[in-house]
Amino acid sequence: MAILVTGGAGYIGSHTVAELLARNEEVVIVDNLQQGHREALLGGKLYEGDIRDGAFMDTVFQENEIEAVIHFAAHSLVGESMQNPAKYYHNNVYGTLCLLEKMTAYNVKKIVFSSTAATYGEPEHVPILETDRTLPTNAYGETKLAMEKMMRWFDTAHQIKFVSLRYFNAAGAHESGRIGEDHAPESHLIPIILQVALGQRPHISVFGDDYATPDGTCVRDYIHVTDLSDAHILAVEKLRKGGDSSIYNLGNGTGFSVKEVIEIARKVTGHPIPAVMEARRAGDPATLVASSERTKAELGWKPRHAHLEQIMETAWNWHQTHPNGYSL
Ligand code: UFG
């Protein structure tokens, strides 16, 4: 039986496919390749198409015996979601509805879901617990919360069990150096900083230094991408053992400000990385730091690259060897 990975050619999806293959799992990938890269797949069977295309998804479910789904396919940019919420509701919420309808029709009862810290909004306290209030400050987080809630009702009605993994800030690249982060256009902090170190940009723009944080810049909890992949596989295992639907945070529990991230990148790359202060970006909460204690206790998850310097080194290795990402 196979695991279907939607969005499997994307950044986190491709790292999870690599880890599944390393564990000898049979992997089927669905990706419309809007953001994903064919070259990011180190194996598995790719179906190029969209989860909202019913006839296409029928083919996927009919040609393979799908045991469980790991659902990454979604748009995921906070800033963009504030400019174009319809794009997020359509691909994320409607796309998930289409997927859950197919899972119902084909009797697939397990789903691991790529959720986000953006579901919480501005936290009441840090570190954030899974039981904390969810009040998103951006449309992206709102759509992910809607997708989680949808899964709950499909569980109630159709016994589709879900594990929702709320990641904090994914970063870094695979240890093999073969796959890494490549978004076009790039909007994430660490790859942009490393593009400055590669001489591809003149400076890093810091979006706001008047937040209620120690140095005024936003604080985030960075987590290595293969530590995220490990958690998805542990979540599949939990569902295989008959585990109930649940929600888990994935972070390292330590916050780094934008200024601190830049400083670590200077140390790792040896480049001065000029920084320019700019206005706030819409939708950004000041601080997002996870408590992942429940994840560790219930899934047995243990991060392998918990330090930001280590995470940065794997990202720097990827960016140096792939200065144009997957394009030559
Ligand atoms: N930032 C800058 N300059 C840049 C890019 C980013 O100052 O050029 C700042 C942002 O304003 C933010 C921080 O760096 O304060 C991190 O920004 P990213 O865009 O790298 O990441 P986000 O925190 O916005 O979002 C990421 C994922 C989301 C996820 C979220 C959870 O993209 O999918 O982490 O914390 F929901």
UniProtKB/TrEMBL annotation:
Entry-linked CDD domains: UDP_G4E_1_SDR_e
Catalytic activity: UDP-alpha-D-glucose = UDP-alpha-D-galactose
Pfam families, sorted: Epimerase (PF01370)
Keywords: Carbohydrate metabolism, Galactose metabolism, Isomerase, NAD
InterPro entries: Epimerase_deHydtase, NAD(P)-bd_dom_sf, UDP_G4E
A Gene Ontology molecular function term of the record: UDP-glucose 4-epimerase activity
Pathway assigned to this chain's UniProt record: Carbohydrate metabolism; galactose metabolism
Domain NAD-dependent epimerase/dehydratase: 3-251
Subunit text: Homodimer.
Entries under PANTHER family matching the protein: UDP-ARABINOSE 4-EPIMERASE 1, UDP-GLUCOSE 4-EPIMERASE
Name of the protein this chain belongs to: UDP-glucose 4-epimerase
Underlying gene: galE
